[in-house]
Design brief:
- 42% of the residues are buried.
- The protein has a two-stranded antiparallel sheet with strand order 1-4. The chain has a two-stranded antiparallel sheet with strand order 2-3.
- It is built from 14 helices and four strands.
- The chain starts with a strand and ends with a helix.
- The chain is 57% helix and 7% strand.
């Protein structure tokens, strides 16, 4: 039986840090050894790979636990090492979060994947806290592949920053961070042709497309409920991230949202315009201020706009 390989994100490999596993690249359907255990990636070579839009390395599937320990060490360093460049810290946290969310989508019944998501969400909380420049660094990262992974990180980090500035509790912020990352996990239960809807304007959907798109929050809840360990607060955020205070949201058309649910829904609506639809950030917040008035509390829309301005995003 041949070796099975697992993909990992290039952004989760740090230059000059010794590897605890062999690293491979894929070339013409073959996996070639790139670096051996104990070696470290050269910074210039890593930059070159990123310029060439190489997004993934590969590791032996048997080394997944070693990689997770390596990643945990990097996340800890991103939080505690104040000498690490802000861009490097953002790369590590974003890469770890995307890795975890992608693993959750591919293996939704994996408790290990969910734990990795919780670890990544904690990384977002810790690097964003008291570091206003981190939000800007996280938003500089552009996805070369699946835009839904990038918007997961952006929505989570935006909502976390907003919740922190509002003085919400640690428990609320943890649920916001994890719920923001996993809000679209229901995509895994949708036919691939409908997954493209996440990067299209809602007004261009056919009736069938809109009906199918509106199922993704409930599908996400079903995926997470199967784990039996996901906190109710996270499930609620996933379930309500498309709901509006006007009752014009979905899937249930409810008119009441908790503060956590409203923050994630608002940040999700904003980032859909910016990340999924490639909109201008300034125009996006203007659109939110006009089109979403009545869907969210005006105080929260105003708060988000000020936060984006203060943190240099608009």
């Amino acid at each position: 039986m041949g070796v099975e390989y697992s993909p990992i994100r290039v952004s989760t490999i740090k230059p000059q840090k010794k590897l605890t596993f062999d690293l491979h690249i894929r070339f013409k359907e073959q996996f070639l050894l790139y670096l051996k255990v104990g070696e470290a990636v050269d910074r210039d070579k890593l930059k070159k790979l990123k310029k060439q839009k190489v997004a993934r390395f590969f590791i032996d599937s048997n080394d997944e636990e070693k990689y997770q320990h390596y990643l945990d060490d990097l996340l800890d360093a991103a939080v505690t090492d104040k000498n690490m460049a802000a861009s490097d810290r953002a790369d590590i946290v974003s890469g770890a979060a995307k890795n975890a969310v992608e693993e959750m989508r591919e293996n939704p019944s994996s408790k290990k994947a969910y734990k990795a998501t919780e670890k990544a969400s904690k990384g977002i909380i810790d690097v964003v806290k008291n570091n206003p420049e981190m939000l800007k660094e996280l938003f500089k990262i552009k996805s070369e592949e699946d835009v839904t992974l990038q918007t997961a990180v952006n929505t989570s980090s935006l909502a976390v920053r907003m919740a922190q500035l509002k003085g919400m509790s640690e428990e609320e912020i943890e649920a916001i961070s994890t719920g923001g990352l996993l809000r679209d996990v229901g995509i895994t239960k949708m036919d691939k042709k409908y997954q493209e809807l996440f990067s299209k304007p809602l007004e261009t959907f056919t009736n069938i497309e809109l009906k199918i798109y509106k199922t993704h929050p409930q599908l996400g809840v079903k995926v997470l409920e199967e784990l039996e360990t996901v906190p109710q607060e996270v499930l609620s955020i996933v379930h309500t991230h498309e709901e509006k205070l006007s009752g014009m949201g979905f899937p249930r058309g409810i008119k009441k949202l908790s503060p956590s649910e409203e923050i994630v829904s608002l940040c999700s609506s904003y980032d859909r315009l910016v990340t999924c639809l490639d909109g201008d950030p300034k125009e996006a917040i203007k659109t939110i201020g006009i089109d979403e008035l009545g869907n969210y509390n005006l105080d929260n829309i105003t708060f988000l706009k000020k936060m984006l301005k203060d943190d240099g995003l608009i």
